[in-house]
């Protein structure tokens, strides 16, 4: 008996090899059963009664990706059947008994497998080329014709499969010929075509029906009783009774996203609509559901498109204290449509207290035709409209769309990202998501009409705008808002421990504002270390630290508490630093971040706790240190042929060029630790008269004269505390060995140009940076 398989495709990374593999015809005559391997991933569809199938060779379409569909086991096979010969009029032949009509029955079994593959392909039609779409359409028509030729008994058994196939045909046709009127009202049983729906029918439910009928048609072919056949068809007799009633536990929930966000806190929830019928929310809460995302409607702002269970579901969640957010299924194909859909949501949520964001469900195939740029504009318009009304806003879509279509907003910290990817142990979306829909076929106590989507939330729920979730015993909290490269000021104030900024997008923090709430006798002061500026002056309570409009990165920060009650609390903070990741926690005025490395701050978390309370968890930290400082012992800049003055180099870095045959013409050297003097040997001049004090120019500019050698020495007390080493890159020779403390380095008498230099300051008597054998050439 056919094993019950739901070909549910993980939304996203699974970019649908179905488009490329599931629509190929098999040999029409005496075809042997086709073994499916993980490598081949080929599901073959045969349309027996079509003239197109009267071929001796398979027309296999190569797949672009291995990430298209769930891989069957190597032992699973799909049987193929002999086609009806051209002179056999199946459609007009008399019905035969089950025993006699073996050829037609085998054909009916094959039809079930074909329908399953074509429904899956139709659900992912946006991943197919126009030629592949046309081929899928033709295959659907062929299988429809084959189903028309089946006996009445077989057609009755496969009635739901026929409905699913017809819906797939409409979905494909809608994609080929999109509706031009963007203002239509979408009936809930119409138009919905995406990776989740075909013509409004749930793909999950359609494939469930097809799978059950596949088992039923095999039972019919094997001569089972009508009771068994009917039981398999309606699901009262099950071939496979896998029970999925339990939510995943926190232990099961650990994944890379939790680590990336620096949290072990995950919450399990569900998303629901009228398709789940009347839900027993008391039972749902008892089952361990921590939150719900409730559909409020779909499409334009018309009451006929409100979800029929919206009012009931939201009232029950509020009654039983279940935190909730909402979503609206989108049909918008322009920004005006996005505004109307935002108005639809705002009309329905008025007067309600949402704990979670308002999401725009972006998946419908009609939107794909609008183009990627317009889809992003639709998302931004909807979210900005929702935020302006005082709510958090987000977008729901598949991994495939997040990675390709919605990538410009995948790390936008003003938008909450909700990713759909099923049948996978982790998410493959390149996005800063907070919510993962990991299952579309879940079962939860209290929901009996249909299966339900299961979701996981990462970290704390967002704070209501203007509120501060406190971690202190008296409710005093800390809030903050960052100015982010390419984004500007975040639209939402972050609170105790929330991440402000971005992770994984390589965007710098440029400025920050911080404030205390809940206790007027405590304040906050803070200062930032900024690129090209250094440590700025300290500012306080919602004043701006850092810069805006100058493109300068923040590299480090210090935060301390002020006021009469400052001694009652501790403030902890940590930063996500470029090339490092999350660093350790700093506390009460100590520095967090880096100094002297040129590493941007990319994100920050700040927490206020009672005095002496346990420090926050360091989960997700790449290093334990809160601050790294690189002191520049010596800095130097050179004037290079064709380029002029270069930026300062420090502590052994190379100033100048190598491999480009460009001369050094002048140099400046300085140190915050030591007193330095230097002099240079110049083409046509020789050793310049006298020693040059630090910060001044030795050499020439505008005369096209090469530097050939250099001497550098320390003076005063510095000479007894430090040694200074230096080496040069010399024409025809390359790097010399290291000279020190006033000894010449380079050459005289050879007319060799200096091309680059390195300088290092070490403690007196410390090891040399390298060999000191020969640093100077003279004749």
Structure description:
The protein is α+β, with helices and mostly antiparallel strands and 779 residues long. The chain is 21% helix and 27% strand. The strands form nine sheets. It has an eight-stranded mixed barrel with strand order 5-6-7-8-9-10-11-12. Helix 2 (102-123) packs antiparallel against helix 6 (203-221), helix 5 (159-176) packs across helix 6 (203-221) and helix 6 (203-221) packs antiparallel against helix 7. The longest helix has 22 residues, at 102-123. 49% of the residues are buried. Mean pLDDT is 80; it is low at 1-18, 20-104, 181-190 and 240-254.
Shape: elongated
Structural class: alpha+beta
Unreliable sequence segments: 1-18, 20-104, 181-190, 240-254
Cross-sheet strand order for the largest sheet: 5-6-7-8-9-10-11-12
Note the total helix count.
16
Largest sheet: 8 strands, mixed, barrel
User: What is the gyration radius calculated from CA atoms?
Assistant: 35 Å
- State which percent range the strand residues make up: 25-35%
- Please state the average pLDDT score: 80
Number of β-strand runs? 44
Distance between the termini: 96 Å
Proportion of helical residues: 10-25%
